[in-house]
Design goal:
Arginase, Chain A
Length: 314
């Protein structure tokens, strides 16, 4: 299916623009040469959404840069100081991205987007951040492509205002959300669910529920396992707020993962999460998370498809 057929297919369903808000900043984008991380995918997703008639009535919000005070809610001060000084130390060296002003700025606006999302969620059922989901960042060190853990920061801000809230993190990126698992391992108000490729980076931490998939798991098996996992969560935890890390890297053509979902399978995955959220009567923040298709436009297409699932009817 080419991208024009893709958009035509998506237009067949009823849309509900008043139920969802979108967050985007041009500062999300970073220029990386010969790097597997698609640092400009955020701009392309935003550009194509802006050209789509379905999104004419949807509001796009521009986040502010996160403050140091907010960062300290989820990250150690010494680590934040090293980041702001652009120092390569024991705390920053495990990142697989360069450490520059522009890249740090991208993460500061990304965390600002997550903070804005928890404000907008009072008004909307769904908030879609065209970015975020940097789940490998730990309280005291960077890891993978992640300097700041936007979900942890936003969760702490939200719980500070709503101490009785119950937060569910649904992480369907191909990599385990080890930073979130570690961060919330003793937090009774946060349930972490990670369904990921088991024999793949990173070193695993213990989530509330981990589902490690065999490499080369295909669509039908994946969706069945996800269905059973969601049934289990229903019996264990009742969320007020869901963070959904809608990773595009479970796609069959991804350069870093070996899970073999096709495009329709990813759409069904997103529909399952939306249905679950509606059944739980839980507000939901969607984050694009990972995606490293060998064809750049496929990663963009997957993120747009996710946006359309949450914009329209099931």
């Amino acid at each position: 299916m080419n991208i024009f057929d893709f958009f035509f297919e998506q237009k067949k369903k009823k849309i509900f623009p008043d139920e969802i808000a979108f967050i985007y900043s041009e500062s999300y984008n970073i220029d990386l040469v010969n790097h597997v991380f698609p640092g400009n995918k955020f701009r392309k997703v935003f550009e194509l959404l802006s050209l789509d008639d379905d999104f004419i009535k949807v509001k796009f919000y521009d986040p502010e840069k996160i403050s140091k005070e907010d960062l300290y809610l989820a990250h150690e001060k010494k680590y934040i100081d090293d980041l702001f000084n652009l120092e390569h130390t024991e705390k920053t060296k495990n990142s697989e991205l360069p450490l520059t002003d522009k890249i740090l700025n991208s993460f500061l606006f990304g965390a600002g987007g997550a903070k804005l999302a928890i404000t907008l969620i009072d008004e909307y059922k769904f908030v879609f951040n065209v970015g975020g989901g940097f789940h490998h960042s730990f309280p005291e060190h960077a890891e993978g492509f992640c300097y700041l853990n936007d979900v942890a920061i936003a969760s702490e801000i939200y719980l500070k205002k709503n101490p009785e809230a119950r937060i569910l993190i649904i992480d369907l990126d191909v990599h385990q959300g080890n930073g979130n698992a570690f961060y919330f391992k003793n937090h009774k108000n946060v349930y972490t669910f990670s369904m990921h490729e088991e024999d793949l980076y990173p070193k695993k931490e213990k989530s509330s529920l981990d589902i490690g998939l065999k490499s080369f798991t295909k669509t039908d098996e994946y969706l069945k396992i996800l269905e059973n996992s969601l049934k289990r969560i229903k019996n264990e935890f009742k969320p007020n707020l869901i963070f959904y890390l809608a990773g595009a890297d479970v796609f069959e053509n991804d350069a870093l993962g070996s899970i073999k979902l096709d495009m329709i399978g990813i759409k069904k995955r997103d529909q399952m999460i939306k249905k679950f959220a509606l059944e739980q009567n839980s507000k939901t923040i969607i984050l694009t998370a990972g995606g490293y298709s060998k064809n750049f436009i496929e990663t963009v297409q997957i993120h747009i498809q996710t946006a359309k699932v949450f914009l329209g009817e099931l």
